[in-house]
Amino acid sequence: NQLLDSMLISSSPITNEENMRNFTDQEFQICTQTADKSLQGKSGHNVNVYLNLYDKNNKQLGDSIRLENSKNHKIPFQKHHTDKFNILLSNITIFEIDRIDLYHDGQNDGWFCDFVELKNLQTNQTKCFSVHQWLDKISDNMHFSMTNYQMISCDDKRYNGNISNYYYYTVRIKTNQTNLLPNGSVHISLKLFGKFHQTEQIQLDQTIDNQQAFHRNNSIDTFEIRTSTKLNSIEKIEFYYEFQINYGKLSLEWIEITNLTNGIISCFPINRILTQLNNNKQIQQILTLTEFNNKSCSD
């Protein structure tokens, strides 16, 4: 799973001479924020963190970027640290960047990344990708891909009181079989219950990689959700579904929810086929799930 060095762009220090080689080169600063879990590697092995950039057509912009030589920390990706990396990108503007892939090759522990910020140092144009994601080792295929961003500094977003009071979760749903075609859809939402509180009904309307959810057999769709309700634990889920086509059918295996504040996983087995009620579309149905464990559903 190691990437060839010849295919990588290194975030090494940039000299004025290098910056003059090509007028299409733009100097960017990439910032990462580590939450309460440092990234660790095997004994004697440095962990490599990679970033890929994509445009709106899902075309990769340039080569994979290895984030190394943090400008402000000798050892990057440590607890509560923001690391800054400078890099030259050729023929790429910040407006072209629509999606990022973030991953690493650490083997001992996961890494909780809070955000990734990209800034053009010539124009100060900025994009903030709010990751809020637990990234496990690369062999588990935990590449995090996301399209949600804002054209502001991540620090500005962090200290905006209207945003920082949310609690974030990732939701993964395993689809075994589906009869939904590209022009058909199903509206899915859920409500999370703790011991004493419950969230609002939260719509699952966009996967983190902008794929059309529940349209592929034997697939896993991943969503990021947020709520202003704090739950110390998840004890129950109410799963709402409403088919928008006649004779809709969906076979689901499990739902996995990860609390991005503490990394706690809740796996709720489903193992059932969801169908329309009396073959009438646009009737909302509810599935209540109370049995769960705290291991990854895909283990």
Question: What is the strand and helix layout of this fold?
Answer:
Blueprint: E1 8-10, H1 16-19, E2 25-34, E3 49-54, E4 64-67, E5 82-90, E6 99-104, E7 111-120, E8 126-135, E9 144-146, H2 154-158, H3 161-164, E10 167-178, E11 186-193, E12 202-203, E13 219-227, E14 236-243, E15 249-259, E16 265-275, E17 285-289
Parallel strand pairs: 1-4
Antiparallel strand pairs: 2-5, 2-7, 3-4, 3-6, 6-9, 7-8, 10-13, 10-15, 11-12, 11-14, 14-17, 15-16
Task: Describe the 3D structure.
The structure is a single chain. The protein is mostly beta strands. The chain has 2 domains: 157 residues, Lipoxygenase-1 (Sandwich), CATH 2.60.60.20; 124 residues, PLAT/LH2 domain (Lipoxygenase-1, Sandwich). The chain is built from 3 helices and 17 strands. The strands form 4 sheets. Strands 1-4-3-6-9 form a 5-stranded mixed sheet, with no helix packed on it. A 4-stranded antiparallel sheet has the order 5-2-7-8, with no helix packed on it. A hairpin with an 8-residue loop joins strand 11 and strand 12. The two termini are 20 Å apart. The N terminus is likely disordered. Pfam families: PLAT. This is PLAT domain-containing protein.
Question: Summary?
Answer:
This is PLAT domain-containing protein. Helix content is 4%, strand content 42%. With 299 residues, the chain is mainly beta.
